[in-house]
Write a structure and sequence with these properties.
This protein is α/β, with parallel strands linked by helices and about 130 residues long. Helices cover about 40% and strands about 15% of the residues. Strand 3, helix 3 (about 80-90) and strand 4 (about 95) form a beta-alpha-beta unit.
């Protein structure tokens, strides 16, 4: 039996999230105020992220948070807080591009599913093995 594919839609703000779900998205991906490549979107602060997750889950939909930048060493200091806050908000998955971010996310929020971003640079067997 074939599984129905998941329809995943971007949601740059709460209005876009509502529309994506209203028009059939099974899940939405969105960015927080940092660590996401969706810099053109309004994105979600901590309170808005909680509201987005509550709204989506009430309707049986999922929320994936993009953590798909490649942070500098200085930026990494803020990353654990962002990951914990998102996990506490109840996001269903992280979309990650950097293997260092992956390791930190797995250590802080092992219960949150991880997906690799299209921004990930998997170019050789060593990176593929690490990702696996």
């Amino acid at each position: 039996m074939l599984e129905r594919p998941e329809l995943l839609s971007p949601a740059g703000d709460f209005e876009a999230l509502r529309y994506a779900i209203a028009y059939g998205a099974d899940a939405v991906y969105l960015g927080a105020k940092s660590f996401g490549m969706r810099s053109g979107a309004k994105n979600f602060d901590e309170v808005q992220l909680v509201d987005a997750v509550v709204f989506a889950h009430r309707l049986g939909r999922k929320v994936y948070l993009t953590l798909n930048t490649v942070p500098t060493n200085a930026e990494l200091r803020e990353l654990p807080y962002t990951i914990k806050s998102a996990a506490d908000a109840g996001v269903d998955a992280f979309i990650i591009a950097d293997l260092g971010v992956l390791r930190i996310a797995q250590a802080i929020a092992p219960q949150v599913v991880v997906h690799f971003s299209t921004q990930a640079g998997i170019m050789n067997y060593a990176a593929a093995t690490a990702a696996y």
